[in-house]
Design brief:
heterodimer, A: alpha+beta, 3 helices, 3 strands, 38% helix, B: alpha+beta, 4-stranded antiparallel β-sheet, 5 helices, 13% strand
């Protein structure tokens, strides 16, 4: 009886390409708020308090950073959470984006 | 407009006092909503997301605007949220989430006025000579700001 050759199965070493960044569960996404000349300073503070449930002093510090430096890093999160926050912030009319922390 | 107090039976409810002029102004400016076509910002400046994520943001913003609009119709035609009191002034009753809703509506109108004015800086706006349409936008913008401040005071 002829011997059959067992197929050799190599471990899957090829990296699966990520098509949806939502699969990224690292806390590697930054939520950034950008300055704009229209939203009231008190309004920005209020929105940060509502969205992040921050005390007024913390929200105010970020608002001042947005106003003076042009932007403020609000939080570092997983993709999904960062996306959720940006939806909320933009829903309030704030200029906010999410960026990958390189 | 000023906060008169919190409802005793429903502590989540805020009661505001308004003069007749304030009531007329508030009802007139919210009628402007949504004022401008929805402008959706990018979800990311550096391409951290794909087109599907951007589409979801657009869907979410569109749905939020529709929800605000639906609430506004209820507010304007539904049960009287603004009632005249015995002194001839008016009382506006809002639940906590309605305070947030009205804040967002007023902010969108305010931003819409600013866009219509050409997105000026505060200094430019102060120096600028305004035509009739600009003046309407400027006045509406300031009125929105006035009501926003009062609503935020009530949230504290």
């Amino acid at each position: 009886m002829p011997k059959t050759i067992e197929p050799i199965v190599l471990p899957d070493t090829e990296k699966k390409e990520k098509s949806d960044p939502r699969e990224d569960h690292d806390h590697g996404y930054l939520v950034i708020a950008w300055n704009d000349p229209i939203n009231l300073m008190d309004y920005v503070t209020h929105v940060l308090q509502m969205v992040f449930n921050w005390p007024k002093a913390k929200a105010e510090a970020h608002m001042l950073q947005i106003h003076n430096a042009g932007q403020s890093l609000l939080t570092r999160e997983t993709f999904e959470k960062a996306e959720h926050y940006v939806h909320q912030l933009q829903g309030y009319g704030l200029h906010a984006t999410m960026e990958k922390d390189e | 407009m000023r906060l008169l107090g919190v409802d005793k039976v429903f502590p989540e409810t805020r009661v505001f006092g308004l003069s007749k002029q304030e009531r007329d102004c508030l009802l007139a400016i919210v009628e402007y909503y949504p004022f401008l076509e929805l402008y959706i910002q990018p979800l990311s400046k550096t391409g951290a997301v794909n087109s599907e994520n951007q589409r979801l943001l657009e869907e979410s913003m569109t749905e939020q605007r529709h929800a605000r609009l639906r609430k506004l119709y209820e507010f304007l035609r539904g049960n009287p949220r603004i009632e005249r009191d015995e002194s001839g002034s008016f009382r506006l009753t809002l639940k906590a989430e309605e305070v947030e809703w009205l804040l967002q509506v007023l902010n969108e109108i305010r931003v819409g006025c600013w866009i219509r004015l050409g997105r000026p800086d505060t200094d430019d706006l102060a120096k600028r000579e305004l035509n009739a349409a600009d003046l309407r936008a400027r006045t509406t913008m300031d009125l929105c700001g006035y009501f926003q401040v009062e609503l935020m005071e009530a949230s504290k």
